[in-house]
């Protein structure tokens, strides 16, 4: 009953902990649901075949999305024959895909994947109108609105081609006849088995394992999810990182704010705990009472947060798809296990957050509590002094390392450690740091004519812990926001500056609504380009490869030649290898490198030289690579002039524009994740500020009443407390800037040295100003609203 009674009487002081736990567990539960729903799924276009045989899947490091080595053409033919002869199999269909993008009303359509018509048997899609395509014809998705009989331009790897529309299907994709699709397709990695009606799928799968042998792996049911495109897998991986980070941040900050809430409550209730001890309560009983209060708040807030998270899960799924963190078709499914896990996390976070406060409450002595003065002059614990000093020392050491970096080491990590260390150190030492800074900042206030300035200054210096409790979350929020957003923006600007200075061209041809440039667009007006693809070692390990000419590598400033010459790329059967590959494989000029290509064929080119910083593991002739990878698209092309007739799907831009847009998709995802992090951090800081203001207002009722008795008007009292909160927020803002900006300047200098370019310091000041303004408004409004009853 004691915990219930205390909760009723002191609900305002617990409201902050309830709010942050509610928000945090809503975020954790939605993230857990999304994580549980974000596993690989069977691609819709392959859901029509119950059994698939794929190339052996190699184990790769986390974050590695290189495709597996395709079968050779001979292996594909042999497997197709053996698998098609299995009893119950109507047809064995190789999955052939390629680039094909219809041009509708002068603009490339969203759909950019092409398939052989036989591959339509692997999908649950059906022909809606017309008939199957023949040579010179195409079947399209009916949602494009092109009727059978019309003619349509389709962008392929070679350029635009005009086809007659033979029919429409009720699913996405561009379908060509098998004969037309073969020269546009790369190697085959999967063969689907279309079964006859009534066939035993298990028996077909077992026979397929025997027929495939060591050449393939059989997949049925949900196991077909391994056929998910690598691009979708990469998108899911990015979303996984974002969701995991948001969950961890929510749980961590929730624990800190819960701990802060109960720490302030324990400090204000020292007399109460002393009286309990005086009438016979043991330290264990006091701890149990504090834990009981925390569990009442934690369980209630966690249950409400988990319920809200379950309701918001589908909304989060739509947001993740729209932001590009999950592939199209992703949905958040409501399952009990993630919700139960989120509830358990909420209870554990509550217990962990209140642990320190309960121990402090149990150590209160009866006479100490009864004799305690009203002035907050208790010294900081020795452990806090030591922890704060250690964090600051580590941060300063990392800052010195980052500042002296020549760009060859991990200067970014050093800068992050420096800033985060000093931020954590100042947060721990805030009761000692805030008074002298507050005295310096508020000195002009004491020189004014009115009493308000003096009251604000003396209140900030007297109530050290309240001022520090208000300034600390602002310090952490502003410092982290400036550091993270500035690092992201400065890095992006740095890479753009490097591109602008290294590219030796008058203009650049870039894709416009397409995943890459066709050969026609990449060569328009004499433009030069390179192709990026993969080659495979005999054991199946992938190597990145660039097909280029010496001229285009000179234009982009790539490939520092260690030995040999770029002129070797003019001939086939010669390659240049990266320095790491030469050292690891023992390669030197004259050695043989055995590889297989995207079309499944193998070759043994001769190593002509070694290069460094080439952007790929292997360099080879562009024409040679094109013959072995008929599906590769160029990412950009370089023009000697300023214009070229590039046609649909491409546009010409100047070099600075290209430099700024080159990584636009990646930069967009990083920036969205960064803004989400800043918004969540600011929200938690706001809750911490409101909690501090509401909690401290209860202990200031007598002070405010004395001000009214001394002649202050209600407006003056409220203006004074609002000014106090604004001063504390400005103190935290100033300290956050003092910590973050030098670290950013150090990282910018080291980055400029590493890139050998003038890298500008870019900080999104409007976003930072919005963060500070939000903290100011929340702190002032919470203070005024909490003080209104006492100011009457």
UniProtKB/TrEMBL annotation:
<feature type="transmembrane region" description="Helical">
    <location>
        <begin position="337"/>
        <end position="357"/>
    </location>
</feature>
<feature type="transmembrane region" description="Helical">
    <location>
        <begin position="765"/>
        <end position="787"/>
    </location>
</feature>
<feature type="transmembrane region" description="Helical">
    <location>
        <begin position="237"/>
        <end position="267"/>
    </location>
</feature>
<dbReference type="GO" id="GO:0022857">
    <property type="term" value="F:transmembrane transporter activity"/>
</dbReference>
<comment type="similarity">
    <text>Belongs to the ABC-4 integral membrane protein family.</text>
</comment>
<dbReference type="InterPro" id="IPR050250">
    <property type="entry name" value="Macrolide_Exporter_MacB"/>
</dbReference>
<keyword id="KW-0812">Transmembrane</keyword>
<feature type="transmembrane region" description="Helical">
    <location>
        <begin position="410"/>
        <end position="429"/>
    </location>
</feature>
<dbReference type="GO" id="GO:0005886">
    <property type="term" value="C:plasma membrane"/>
</dbReference>
<feature type="transmembrane region" description="Helical">
    <location>
        <begin position="670"/>
        <end position="696"/>
    </location>
</feature>
<feature type="domain" description="ABC3 transporter permease C-terminal">
    <location>
        <begin position="676"/>
        <end position="788"/>
    </location>
</feature>
<keyword id="KW-1003">Cell membrane</keyword>
<feature type="domain" description="ABC3 transporter permease C-terminal">
    <location>
        <begin position="246"/>
        <end position="364"/>
    </location>
</feature>
<feature type="transmembrane region" description="Helical">
    <location>
        <begin position="294"/>
        <end position="317"/>
    </location>
</feature>
<dbReference type="Pfam" id="PF02687">
    <property type="entry name" value="FtsX"/>
</dbReference>
<keyword id="KW-1133">Transmembrane helix</keyword>
<protein>
    <submittedName>
        <fullName>Putative ABC transport system permease protein</fullName>
    </submittedName>
</protein>
<dbReference type="InterPro" id="IPR003838">
    <property type="entry name" value="ABC3_permease_C"/>
</dbReference>
<feature type="transmembrane region" description="Helical">
    <location>
        <begin position="385"/>
        <end position="404"/>
    </location>
</feature>
<feature type="transmembrane region" description="Helical">
    <location>
        <begin position="717"/>
        <end position="745"/>
    </location>
</feature>
<keyword id="KW-0472">Membrane</keyword>
């Amino acid at each position: 009953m004691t915990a219930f009674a205390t909760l009723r009487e002191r609900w305002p002081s617990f409201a902050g902990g309830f709010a942050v736990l509610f928000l945090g567990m809503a975020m954790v539960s939605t993230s857990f649901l999304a994580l549980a729903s974000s596993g690989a799924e069977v691609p819709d276009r392959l859901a029509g075949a119950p059994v698939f045989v794929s190339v052996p899947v190699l184990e790769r490091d986390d974050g590695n999305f290189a495709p597996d080595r395709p079968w050779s053409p001979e292996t594909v033919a042999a497997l197709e024959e053996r698998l098609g002869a299995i009893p119950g199999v109507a047809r064995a269909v190789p999955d052939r895909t390629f680039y094909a993008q219809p041009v509708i009303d002068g603009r490339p359509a969203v759909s950019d994947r092409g398939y052989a018509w036989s591959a339509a048997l692997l999908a649950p899609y059906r022909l809606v109108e017309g008939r199957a395509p023949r040579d010179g014809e195409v079947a399209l998705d009916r949602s494009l609105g092109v009727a059978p009989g019309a003619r349509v331009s389709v962008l392929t790897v070679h350029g635009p081609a005009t086809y007659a529309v033979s029919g429409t299907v009720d699913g996405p994709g561009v379908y060509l006849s098998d004969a037309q699709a073969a020269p546009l397709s790369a190697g085959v990695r999967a063969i689907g088995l279309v079964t006859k009606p009534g066939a035993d799928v298990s028996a077909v799968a077992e026979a397929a394992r025997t027929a495939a042998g060591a050449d393939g792996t059989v997949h049925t049911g949900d196991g077909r999810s391994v056929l998910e495109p690598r691009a979708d897998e990469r998108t899911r991986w990015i979303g996984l990182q974002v969701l995991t980070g948001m969950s961890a941040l929510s749980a961590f900050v929730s624990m800190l704010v819960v701990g802060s809430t109960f720490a302030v409550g324990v400090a204000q209730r020292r007399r109460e705990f002393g009286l309990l001890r005086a009438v016979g309560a043991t330290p264990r009983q006091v701890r149990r009472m504090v834990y009981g209060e925390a569990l009442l708040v934690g369980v209630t807030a966690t249950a409400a947060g988990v319920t809200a998270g379950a309701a918001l899960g589908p909304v989060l799924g739509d947001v993740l798809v729209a932001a590009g963190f999950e592939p199209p078709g992703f949905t958040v499914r409501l399952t009990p296990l993630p919700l139960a896990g989120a509830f358990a996390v909420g209870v554990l976070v509550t217990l962990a957050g209140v642990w320190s406060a309960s121990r402090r409450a149990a150590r209160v002595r009866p006479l100490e509590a009864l004799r305690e003065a009203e002035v907050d002059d208790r010294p900081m614990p020795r452990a806090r002094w030591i922890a704060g000093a250690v964090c600051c020392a580590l941060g300063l050491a990392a800052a010195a390392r980052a500042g002296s970096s020549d760009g060859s080491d991990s200067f970014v990590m050093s800068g992050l450690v420096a800033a985060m260390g000093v931020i954590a150190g100042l947060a721990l030492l805030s009761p000692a740091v805030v008074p002298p800074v507050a005295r310096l900042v508020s000195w002009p206030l004491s020189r004014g004519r009115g009493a308000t300035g003096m009251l604000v200054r003396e209140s900030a210096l007297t109530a050290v812990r309240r001022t520090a409790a208000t300034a600390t979350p602002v310090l952490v929020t502003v410092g982290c926001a400036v550091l993270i957003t500035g690092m992201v923006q400065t890095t992006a600007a740095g890479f753009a500056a490097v591109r602008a200075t290294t590219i030796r061209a008058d203009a650049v041809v870039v894709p416009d609504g397409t995943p890459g440039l066709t050969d026609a667009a990449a060569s328009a007006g004499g433009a030069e380009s390179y192709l990026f693809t993969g080659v495979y070692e005999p054991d199946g390990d992938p190597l990145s490869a660039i097909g280029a000419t010496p001229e285009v590598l000179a234009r982009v400033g790539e490939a520092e030649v260690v030995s040999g010459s770029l002129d070797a790329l003019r001939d086939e059967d010669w390659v240049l290898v990266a320095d790491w590959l030469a050292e690891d494989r023992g390669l030197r000029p004259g050695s043989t490198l055995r590889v297989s290509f995207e079309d499944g064929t193998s070759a043994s080119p001769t190593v002509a030289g070694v290069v460094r910083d080439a952007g790929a593991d292997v360099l080879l002739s562009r024409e040679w690579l094109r013959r072995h990878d008929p599906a590769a698209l160029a990412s950009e092309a370089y023009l000697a002039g300023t214009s070229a007739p590039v046609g649909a799907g491409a546009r010409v831009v100047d070099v600075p524009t290209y430099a700024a847009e080159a990584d636009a998709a990646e930069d967009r995802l990083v920036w969205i994740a960064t803004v989400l992090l800043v918004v969540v951090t600011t929200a938690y800081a706001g809750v911490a500020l409101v909690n501090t203001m509401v909690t401290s207002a209860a202990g200031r009722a007598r002070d405010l009443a004395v001000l009214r008795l001394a002649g202050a008007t209600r407006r003056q009292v409220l203006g004074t407390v609002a000014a106090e909160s604004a001063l504390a927020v400005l103190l935290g803002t100033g300290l956050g800037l003092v910590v973050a900006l030098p670290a950013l300047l150090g990282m910018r200098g080291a980055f400029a040295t590493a890139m050998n370019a003038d890298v500008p310091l870019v900080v999104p000041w409007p976003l930072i100003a919005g963060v500070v303004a939000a903290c100011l408004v929340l702190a002032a409004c919470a203070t005024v609203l909490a003080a209104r009853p006492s100011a009457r």
